[in-house]
Amino acid sequence: MTDTMKALAKMRPEVGLELIDAPIPVAGPEDVLIRVHRTAVCGTDIHIWNWDEWSQKNVPTPMITGHEFSGEIVAIGSDVNRPLKIGQRVSAEGHVIDLNSEAARAGHFHLDPHTRGIGVNRQGAFAEFVVAPAFNVIELPDDVSYEVAAMLDPFGNAVHTAQQFDLLGEDVLVTGAGPIGMMAAAVARHAGARTVVLTDINDFRLELAQKVAPGVRTVNTTKEDLRDVMKELGLKVGFDVALEMSGSPIAFKQCVDTLIMGGGMALLGIPSKPMETDWGAIILKALTIKGVYGREMFTTWRKMLGLLKAGLDLEPLITHRLSYADYREGFDAMRSGQSGKVILDWDKAA
Ligand code: ZN
């Protein structure tokens, strides 16, 4: 083992990422060092690539990006008291928290206000090696591939959003067919929803969604009227639950308009700027609105692995499998909107 590794980093406060040689990080006493095998590119990584307003405010440079990953443990810190082993196949929760915060001590690990993100404000996983706190490590079952394991982080967002309301036997609207929206639709199906409708304005993604979430009724809202689809599906009044994954003000309004009285709405999509909302409609419909952040540590993870075991298949979501050296192609695909998940392989260069 040499002491340098390949990594994809934001070296300067400007657009793009560079492939660099970086020192292999060293695990602290409570950390593990992980040899990364696969990573997935997230919308967050695109924000960082584009160096938008959010990134400029939140991402210090130089920074190795990437937080969706899988690999094997190659070193364990001296104070780690979890039964982890060298060679163990793992992924990790990318939100690193302060275990002494009030939220953490109350058992609400995902609500620690001082959360730091792997690949956002601490060195990330687009690299041959990454360090993570042992607390964050998720042991992988043998039948979960490294590729699928690299997508557990966003799958966790989907499951966490779907966890907010009871979906059993209910009519569920999912707005936004990005990877997390597709996964949320698949989860709603597995959770026993009566109908699941998934909306977007991107036909490529709606077609892909048919493979990721079979049995879901997809709707391109620029071509079809959601009201007509509701009629076709026998929805007399409206949806019971809406999962808003797009951040689009139009989609938000569609959720409010089509929910039943007393319906529930979980919000994961982040609007790009403050948006006008018809609060009167929300109040008079007695809607419950929940913001969703991250994943519950570690209830959501348990449910995710349970869903995979129960047959929910994430593989159809992968549209690109590339060597890390071809990262530009992967980022271009993500930015084009003509992709599902892009997987980067860190085992070998092309
Ligand atoms: Zn992500």
UniProtKB/TrEMBL annotation:
Every Enoyl reductase (ER) domain range: 16-344
Listed InterPro entries: ADH-like_C, ADH-like_N, ADH_Zn_CS, ER, GroES-like_sf, NAD(P)-bd_dom_sf, Zn_alcohol_dh
This protein's record includes keyword Kinase: no
Alphabetized PROSITE patterns for the sequence: ADH_ZINC (PS00059)
Entry superkingdom: Bacteria
Alphabetized GO MF terms: oxidoreductase activity, acting on the CH-OH group of donors, NAD or NADP as acceptor; zinc ion binding
SMART domains: PKS_ER (SM00829)
Keyword Repeat attached: no
Pfam families documented for this protein: ADH_N, ADH_zinc_N
Protein family: Belongs to the zinc-containing alcohol dehydrogenase family.
NCBIfam families xref list: PRK05396.1
Protein name, UniProt field: L-threonine 3-dehydrogenase
UniProt source species: Brevundimonas subvibrioides
